[in-house]
Amino acid sequence: MSIGAYIRRIGRKRGDGRALTRAEAADLMGQVLDQTATDFEIGAFCMAMRIKGETVDEFAGFLDAIHARTQRVSCVDGTAVVAIPSYNGARKYPVLTPLLGLLLAARGVPVLMHGMTSEDVRVTSGQVFERLGIALNPSKSPLAVGELRWMPTEALCDGLARLIAVRRVLTMRNTGHSLAKMFNPVEGKVLVLSSYTHGEYSEAMQAAFETQGIQALLFNGLEGEVVALENRGLVKSPEAADISAASTAEFAQAVLQGQRPVPAELAAQIETIMSAWQALH
What's residue 202's pLDDT? Predict the structure, then answer.
């Protein structure tokens, strides 16, 4: 079916019975990822899905298409990898996703973090990593135990990166941002950390993980990042004076060197992740 026919199907309000089947969603997303659709059609798709919202079958079909085009990374000895997406960044609170990944790596976990910048108004994990001296690494070589690799989305699935980049034109998030938090970039055992910002997404995302057979932990994250901090007052504490990349990197470095304690909520989240990761072995 042409993408135009799909857009006519989905370009209506939520709940009117115009949802796509899993196979149709995979076909549609394949056209988007392979650039057989025009820029105008892809923009119309993004707007239509934003109005309608995604069903479980649509999420599953979109992920089918992405996974068929993903260049995956493994671990050298088959150890389970923790995959951490970072696409939102910080608007009000420090983006501590890099610290989360580095603390997990310090515990011997192979960590694959991936992300990209699609807007310029937030502090991103990439900016914090740059301050920490950690560069984007597009290598597909196997991860070592205890290694954190910060990978650009395009190195894993260039079509998904192009879809996310549509934000710069439409100035709003699209389905690609949700899918980037859900897809599996790992060959072999994996624990995907994911997050939602709106409650209605949690059940659909959880069900989509189940359809894909992906082991995942789904958090009500901080500003869309996977860090689950219930105490939003962290930004006002002496631990993190502001949300700038420099201040956040300085705080992360101090925590990693044992000069400052790990925030209590982050420490609890790490223990939850470690328990789930160890259960995979």
Answer: 87
Q: Which domain holds residue 34?
A: 3-67
**CA separation for the pair 117, 124 (Å, rounded):** 7
| C-beta of residue 110 within 8 angstroms of C-beta of residue 256 | no
Contact 72, 187 (CB under 8 A): yes
Give domain status of residue 12, yes or no.
yes
CA distances from 246 to 112, 124, 151, 157, 253 (A): 23, 11, 21, 30, 11
Residue 74 lies in a domain: no
Are residues 7 and 100 located together in one domain of the fold? Answer: no
Alpha carbon separation from 4 to 23, 42, 169 (Å, rounded): 16, 10, 20
For residues 193 and 217, is the Cβ–Cβ distance under 8 A? yes
The predicted-structure confidence for 243-256, as pLDDT tens digits, reads as follows 899 999 999 999 99
pLDDT (tens digit, 9 = 90+) per residue, 207-247? 999 999 999 999 988 888 999 865 544 444 445 558 899 99
H/E segment holding residue 155: helix 153-156
Read off φ and ψ for residue 45, nearest 5 degrees.
-60, -45
